[in-house]
Specification:
By secondary structure, this protein is mostly helical. Among the domains are: about 35-80, no CATH class; about 110-260 and about 295-310, MetI-like fold (Orthogonal Bundle), CATH 1.10.3720. The chain is about 70% helix and about 0% strand. It has 15 helices and no strands. Helix 5 (about 105-135) packs across helix 11 and helix 11 runs antiparallel to helix 14. It is flat, with a radius of gyration of 29 Å.
Length: about 325
């Protein structure tokens, strides 16, 4: 007669032995074509097509000659690829009295964007650093007033700034427009930098203070090296906003120093001669090329900086 104790032990050993476990283990594998996945990827596909279709039309139209454009099939690829519309948009299209294309406006935009981005980011990063780590009496009130400026419509400030720039002798100059862009970019950039610096470990700041580091020593040796993502975010936001700006460019400058967007408007809305849609499309792509390149080159850092600067305030 068998011992019940041994039988129980043998059954337990059999169940616990590797390769002899009865029934499936672990979570049930998900179906690749489940209803949820079909809905998710279908929605993403529709959104991608919605945004990519206009870009596709712009690209294929810019590579066609005018006889092919007149056929009216905007979605068909070019039968014969030509880069003449791009050449004309860059160096021959009329933007008013001048017929030198977008090349002059491109360099004007570079001369406006580079100093505006450097100046606004430098000042805003110092502001955010001071508000996050060097609290002073009335700092919260100052911060609220500064952030309030981000919600004032630009149109309300157009005429007062015209008067101000005229009085200091900078109206109609590139440096006047640089100052305007730097000031209007200050509130939102200060908010981003303050939130990011607040999310950094406070122990680093305290340890540096104990070691005798001052305001600028902590900023340049600790804060700046640890803040590359938020600097990239600020750079992308400023480059995109300043490069694509039309309103400030047409109000605060004059025809000789119009930025690229104002010249693009003059090309597209020109009523003289034949409407060259291929040249218009090429000019539009050229105008938006710089922000696209900047974003695609630094896209991962942009996402990291946005996430880090938005979770703590």
């Amino acid at each position: 007669m068998s011992d019940p104790t041994l039988s129980s032990a043998g059954a337990a050993a059999t169940v616990g032995s590797p390769g002899l476990v009865s029934g499936p283990a672990g979570p049930r594998p998900r179906r690749r074509f489940s209803r949820r996945n079909i809905f998710l990827y279908g929605t993403l596909f529709v959104i991608a097509v919605y945004y990519l279709l206009p870009l596709y039309v712009m690209v294929v139209t810019s590579l066609k000659g005018m006889p092919e454009v007149r056929l009216g099939n905007i979605f068909s690829p070019p039968v014969e690829i030509t880069f003449e519309p791009w050449v004309k948009a860059w160096s021959e299209a009329c933007t008013g009295l001048n017929c030198d294309g977008l090349s002059r406006g491109f360099w004007n935009s570079v001369r406006i964007t580079v100093p505006s981005v450097i100046l606004s980011i430098a000042i805003a990063s110092i502001n955010g650093y001071a508000l996050a780590n060097w609290r002073f009496k009335g700092s919260e009130t100052f911060f609220v007033i500064l952030i309030f400026g981000a919600f004032i419509p630009y149109q309300v400030m157009l005429y007062p700034i015209v008067i101000l720039l005229r009085e200091i002798g900078l109206y109609g100059t590139l440096w006047g427009l640089v100052i305007v862009h730097s000031i209007f970019g200050m509130p939102i950039l200060t908010l981003l930098f303050r939130n990011y610096f607040t999310s950094l470990p406070e122990e680093l700041f305290k340890a540096a203070r104990v070691d005798g580091a001052g305001f600028w020593g902590i900023y340049f040796r600790i804060m700046v090296p640890m803040s590359l993502p938020i600097f990239v975010v600020a750079m992308i936001l400023q480059i995109t906003g300043i490069w694509n700006d039309f309103l400030f460019g047409v109000v605060y400058t004059k025809p000789d120093i119009y930025p690229m967007t104002v010249q693009l408007n003059n090309i597209v809305n020109s009523v003289q001669g034949v409407k060259e849609y291929n040249v218009n499309m090429a000019a539009t792509i050229l105008t938006g090329l710089v922000p696209l390149v900047v974003y695609f080159v630094s896209g991962k850092l942009f996402v990291r900086g946005i996430a880090a600067g938005a979770v703590k305030g």
